[in-house]
Amino acid sequence: MNSLPDKQLVPLAAHPGPHREAAFEVLVRRHSPRLHRLAAGMVGPGSADDVLQEVWMGVYRNLRGFRQEAQFTTWLHRIALNACHKALAARPSLPLDEAPEPASPHSPARTGEQADLRARLAWALARLPPEQRDAVTLRELGGLDYAEIAGVLGVEVGTVKSRLSRGRAALRELLSAVGVTP
């Protein structure tokens, strides 16, 4: 099963039969690392597992409805973005003066500094307009190319490029305001 492409695994996982569970498990193992990075970047590492679980539950329930008009990964990333938006909408937003403090310059634990940086990045991403946040997250954390992002978001490649440019500029400004130098 591991060697089968998504195009062959999806029908096996979508319909009851002897290979359903195994095919679905391969899809989960294959795509979870990328989806987890995407979710962790958008909602923070503490909520990423919950979002990922919601994504896969939604995929399992709705896989029969996937018509394969688009690539499976496009459909999957759209579900992941929707789950991230839902998780973000459910939490309160902090104003700029309550942004995470920069790490102490004498912090001995590099892992603590990295966790602090991830928290400030998640904070800044949450403040971007959704269309910019989605484009930046799909590109930088999801590893999708411009055409794939365009497919997930349902926009033209030129629109993706402009959203990425604006989103990156806004991130630089937000992160600089909380002590992160790009």
Q: Please, could you describe this protein's structure?
A:
The relative contact order is 0.12. The protein has 2 domains: 91 residues, Orthogonal Bundle (Rna Polymerase Sigma Factor, Chain: A), CATH 1.10.1740.10; 86 residues, Arc Repressor Mutant, subunit A (Orthogonal Bundle), CATH 1.10.10. It has 182 residues and is mainly alpha-helical. The termini are far apart. α2 packs antiparallel against α3 and α2 crosses α4. Helix content is 70%, strand content 0%. The chain is globular, with a radius of gyration of 18 Å. About 6% of the residues have low confidence. The protein is built from 8 helices and no strands.
Distinctive features:
182 residues; mainly alpha; Rna Polymerase Sigma Factor, Chain: A; Arc Repressor Mutant, subunit A; globular; RNA_pol_sigma_r3/r4-like; transcription regulation
